[in-house]
From TrEMBL:
The keyword Cytoplasm does not apply. GO terms for cellular component: cytoplasm. InterPro entries: FAD-dep_OxRdtase, FAD/NAD-bd_sf. Gene3D superfamilies: D-Amino Acid Oxidase, subunit A, domain 2, FAD/NAD(P)-binding domain. This is FAD-binding oxidoreductase. GO terms for molecular function: oxidoreductase activity. It comes from the Bacteria. Pfam families: DAO. The keyword Oxidoreductase applies. Keywords: Oxidoreductase, Plasmid. Residues 3-341 form the FAD dependent oxidoreductase domain.
Length: 369
């Protein structure tokens, strides 16, 4: 069997690897450098999230797969099991975190409550007066473009530089006009999937990131505010949240922001200043730290914040692996496991959840029933 994978980012590379492990010959089509799109524009965090049971299952299983893969990764991947601290600003937030802790424990992930003193000891540079935190020790960070390249090489995939402009029967057409044919096409090019398949329920979401110079203040964990969901996921308005990550280079990676329907790559300076002010509210010394680089990236979001994994409802031989929003690095390996199980009949506990594109049709049928 021959498969074409559209997209050489982290998700496409993971899918290519899974296909190759099942004996498939894989050609990957990528218009730019491997991992040069959303993969390079993200924070590279590997985090368990619990917005829904399906998201919890996908992220927790993916973390298991990352832990197994980490042993084989090259040093340049910068895999670092730093853990995450979900920081509580006040007693109300800390008290409300218990269901999150229980959900993590039920999924087999570690989760420990820290009081104010324990948090201050774990992260001395956080401002005084915080109530505590939920520590998730199994979370990690990674430099994903290196991992994408590693997986493509392991898969023995043929990587071709080229932009796909159209899906045709049994293959794709490139911007050069050339047509390529295969038994299977996997669309894994993030928001680019919306251009190839306009009927998909996908939205573009822009985010800003900043990395500091080396020698910034020391942070031991990835730090995220517990108000992250209401700050950054609460609606369609522009939003920011505190999210800081230590890098092995001694730098800090600072996020996060959300803007929907902003397809440009320009820096929104007022929003960036707002994002940095939010970060400095938690880490005051950041105000004296110099930035090295600022950039933006485009994520690909779905209405229920879960990826589309599985066969296209109307196109034979076309499978989707897109719509991961800000969790594409975390869930790439779980996505590939689901795809392989769908194609080859293997077992995955993730098949208990519906990640297929057809779920949106079923939702509409339920509404109109």
């Amino acid at each position: 069997m021959h498969a074409i994978v559209i997209g050489g980012g982290m998700v496409g590379a993971a899918c290519a690897d899974a296909l190759a492990l099942n004996g498939v010959r894989v050609t990957v089509l990528e218009p730019g450098p491997v991992g040069g799109g959303a993969t390079a524009a993200g924070m590279g965090h590997l985090v368990v999230m619990d917005d829904s049971p399906a998201q919890l299952a996908l992220t927790s299983r993916s973390l298991e797969l990352w832990e197994a893969l980490a042993r084989d990764l090259p040093a340049q991947a910068d895999y670092h099991a730093c853990g995450t601290l979900w920081v509580a600003s006040d007693a109300e937030e800390l008290e409300a975190v218990e269901p999150k802790r229980q959900a993590y424990l039920a999924a087999g992930r570690g989760a420990l409550l820290l009081n104010a003193a324990e948090l201050a000891h774990a992260e001395p540079n956080l401002r005084p007066g915080l109530a505590g935190a939920l520590r998730v020790p199994g979370d990690s960070v990674v430099y994903a473009p290196v991992v994408a390249q590693f997986l493509l090489e392991r898969a023995g995939a043929t990587v071709r530089r080229g932009a796909v402009t159209e899906l045709i029967e049994g293959g794709v057409r490139l911007a050069s006009g050339e047509s390529l044919h295969a038994d299977l096409v996997v669309v894994a090019n993030g928001i680019g999937a919306a251009g190839l398949l306009p009927g998909l329920p996908l939205r573009q979401r822009k985010g800003h990131l900043l990395i500091t110079e080396r020698g910034a203040l020391k942070v031991n964990h990835q730090l995220v505010e517990l108000g992250y969901l209401k700050s950054a996921h609460g609606g369609d308005e522009d939003s920011v949240a505190f999210n800081v990550q230590p890098r092995p280079t001694g730098q800090l990676l600072i996020g996060s922001s959300r803007q929907f329907e902003r397809p440009d790559r320009e820096i929104d300076w007022p929003l960036l200043r707002r994002m940095l002010r939010r970060a400095a509210e938690f880490l005051p010394a950041l105000a004296q730290t110099s930035a090295l680089r600022v950039w933006t990236g485009q994520r690909c979001a779905t209405p229920d914040h879960l990826p589309l994994i599985g066969p296209h409802p109307d196109l034979d031989g076309v499978f989707l692996a897109t719509g991961h929003e800000g969790l594409g690095i975390t869930t790439a390996l779980g996505t590939a496991e689901v795809l392989a199980a769908q194609l080859f009949g293997g077992f995955s506990e993730l098949l208990a959840h519906d990640f297929t594109p057809a779920r949106f049709g079923r939702m509409l049928e339920a509404v109109h029933a």
